[in-house]
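Q: What does the predicted 3D structure of SDR family NAD(P)-dependent oxidoreductase look like?
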Amino acid sequence: MSNDQKVAIVTGASQGIGAELVKGYREKGFRVVGTSRSIKPSEDPDLVTVAGDIADPTTAARVVAEALERFGRVDTLVNNAGVFIAKPFTEYTAEDFATMLGVNLHGFFHVSQAAAEAMAKQGSGHIVTITTTLVDHPMAEVPSVLASLTKGGLNAATRSLAIEYASKGVRVNAVSPGIIKTPLHPAEAHETLAGLHPVGRMGETSDIVDAVLYLESAGFVTGEILHVDGGQSAGR
């Protein structure tokens, strides 16, 4: 099998933004390795699925190993898997804390480390992480300290990795969304959530996919935190 075709890994790939990212990369001709706890087997020979919890280091290792064994390379990693729990600070439990650290930070660390090693060896690659605009623009309506704690760390790590790996041919960027219309948000909340954005609407999954694919083709962009948030980060 030829290994000239580019390969993307997408975490949190079974639904919402992740599932649309898989479609977007396949439409651009990438082979894809998608992972999530509930992902189903694929009938597409150019789409490999790996079921598992990305917070588990063995899942991260399997995902990168599958990409290398099946397709011979890793060109892009999209760290899309994430957990968001909105609660007043004093109502967070130890379980909430462990869950968000596990998926948002441990998952990022283990799979990014394995992917970065493979990319550095081949002399090229791109890591993109989905964070949240609440890091830069907290809102009283959406109490989210643990999201800021974990995703804010990912924004900082994005800039640091971009500098560390620039000379190795590996770019590192992030997309910072506003509130996106996914199954996470019930339809009856959409009008209220839309009103939290200066443009007056929630984001669509396609808005995030478009941003990620822009960064994919933007060879002179690294260390960027690209806000796709309907103007939230600019102010209200």
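A (community wiki): The structure tokens above were generated from the sequence. The radius of gyration is 17 Å. Strands lie at 7-11, 31-36, 47-51, 76-79, 125-130, 170-177, 225-228.
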